[in-house]
Design brief:
about 300 residues, alpha/beta, Conserved hypothetical protein from pyrococcus furiosus pfu- 392566-001, ParB domain, 4 domains, two-stranded antiparallel ribbon, about 45% helix, Chromosome partitioning protein, ParB family, DNA-binding, ParB/RepB/Spo0J
Amino acid sequence: MSVIKKSALGKGLGALLAENDTTVSKPELVAPQQKVETAAIGSVSFIQVDQIEVNPFQPRTDFDELALGELAESIKLQGIIQPLTVRKMGDKSFQLISGERRLRASKIAGLTEVPAYIRLANDQEMLEMGLIENIQREDLNAIEIAISFQRMVDEVGLKQEELGERVSKNRSTVTNYLRLLKLPPVIQAGIRDNHISMGHARAIINVGDIDKQLWIYRQILEKDLSVRKVEELVRELGKKPEPVEPKQVNTANPHVKRVEDGLSSKFGTRVALRIDEKGKGRIEIPVLSNNDLNRILEIIG
């Protein structure tokens, strides 16, 4: 079997996986009979699928069943072109670093063993390699990417500049993804479920008021607004003076907060419950347009 030196691939996954003087066998020369017991760390070997546990640091939680089925059919015909990457945990125990889609599809295809690079990595390296591999190689939605970026900042301790270098993106791109996580949960879900695009979301982020963000989001869904239309809408809202917010009473009261959260969820906008020390007060539901008023009146019934 011929052996080649694995060269660094630059920034990103290649640099993370590259190790000084690490040798790897050419994947196309790996024979099925080569088993892990005789393989060196860093080589490609065939491993029993029931010996591989899923990477607990995997950022992707949603796998398209149809796409997995198509990949499984391809594997039946062509085999696995790109080996998985695992770390050795024991004599016959391995943990997946990257390639969960390939592993899942291999099981669907009925494979009992799969080709894999065997690595040694600690938990932090596992997290970083798993996140970067998925960011660069998987079709993650914008929210999954943003969550992965945030985990690398929080758990790996990378600064945004360092993160950009790892994933070959400039700092402004990284910042734009991270800002998505500041949007209300309903809008984040809309991005995740492809109801709105990254362009829509970037326009909404420029509006500081949550009520207006939610109103714009509803307008996008109801009127199928383009990104350009949303940008125009945001500019128009920016020209209007911000209303003076009355002083809120008892905001620290957990009961008041629970009621506000429940009403906000029901009406799809931020609702304020103003209560004085005597228990008297009012409920405030912001209305941003006639259509918005009609929507709220229909909910009230």
